[in-house]
């Protein structure tokens, strides 16, 4: 079987819609070498092969959000009149079997590999995020311990107070004598 390379990287065609990784019908039709019209007709003829978890039509709001990203022409100028269909990984594989062309079969291998690579990256990212959370928790524990040590060391690191300054002038230090004596008043009269 001759391997056909896609024109664009398939990973760039995979979008996240409703929490699922999907490829739009226009992109799948281009990958499989047919027009979007022929592609959608084949899907409608075989609608029983495409349950909700394989294929769904985008709502108006979702299509409006994607329209700014994928740059489509205006409706009045020959652009797309209906919201596109989104195909999950299983739906993209089923679409290749429905079309049953050699190009579609060859491209389905690339599509499956692209979804697998994305899944592996997500798993790797999840493992990295989990490890970062563990490191963050450990750092917070160490941070509080270091903060406690710092507050206890702070008084020890402070410079000693200045010694009292000597007084200026001449001072005699002697034991104080009691100058008060008890007097009895005796007046001569």
Can you give me a brief rundown of this structure?
By secondary structure, this protein is of the alpha+beta class.
Write up this protein.
With 189 residues, this protein is an alpha+beta fold. The chain has a domain at 10-131: Mlu1-box Binding Protein, DNA-binding Domain. The protein is built from 5 helices and 4 strands. It has helices at residues 25-32, 36-45, 60-70, 89-99, 102-157; strands spanning 15-17, 20-24, 55-57, 85-87. Strand 1 and strand 2 form a beta hairpin.
Question: What's the layout of helices and strands?
Answer:
Elements: E1 15-17, E2 20-24, H1 25-32, H2 36-45, E3 55-57, H3 60-70, E4 85-87, H4 89-99, H5 102-157
Antiparallel strand pairs: 1-2, 2-4, 3-4
**Which class of secondary structure composition applies to the elements?**
alpha+beta
Distinct helical segment count: 5
The CATH level-2 architecture of the domain at 10-131 is identified as Roll
Q: Widest sheet: strand order?
A: 1-2-4-3
The overall pLDDT, averaged over residues, is 77
String of helices and strands: EEHHEHEHH
The CATH topology of the domain at 10-131 corresponds to: Mlu1-box Binding Protein, DNA-binding Domain
Using the coordinates above, name the CATH class of the domain at 10-131: Alpha Beta
Largest sheet: 4 strands, antiparallel
The Cα radius of gyration reads 42 Å
Helical residue percent band: 40-55%
Low-confidence parts lasting 5 or more residues at pLDDT below 50? none
Number of extended strands: 4
Per the principal axes of the C-alpha atoms, what is the gross shape?
rod-shaped
């Amino acid at each position: 079987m001759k391997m056909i390379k896609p024109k664009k990287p398939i990973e760039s065609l995979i979008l996240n819609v409703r929490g699922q990784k999907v490829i739009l019908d226009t992109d799948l039709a281009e990958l499989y070498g047919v027009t979007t019209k022929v592609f959608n007709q084949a899907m409608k003829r075989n609608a029983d092969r495409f349950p909700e978890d394989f294929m769904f039509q985008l709502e108006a709001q979702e299509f409006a959000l994607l329209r700014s990203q994928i740059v489509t022409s205006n409706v009045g100028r020959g652009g797309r009149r209906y919201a596109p269909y989104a195909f999950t990984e299983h739906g993209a594989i089923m679409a290749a079997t429905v079309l049953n062309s050699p190009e579609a079969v060859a491209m389905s291998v690339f599509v499956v590999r692209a979804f697998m690579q994305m899944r592996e990256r997500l798993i790797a990212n999840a493992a990295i995020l989990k490890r970062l959370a563990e490191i963050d928790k450990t750092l917070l524990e160490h941070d509080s311990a270091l903060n406690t040590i710092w507050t206890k060391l702070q008084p020890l690191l402070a410079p000693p107070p200045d010694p009292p300054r000597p007084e200026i002038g001449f001072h005699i230090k002697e034991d104080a004598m009691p100058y008060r004596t008890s007097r009895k008043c005796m007046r001569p009269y």
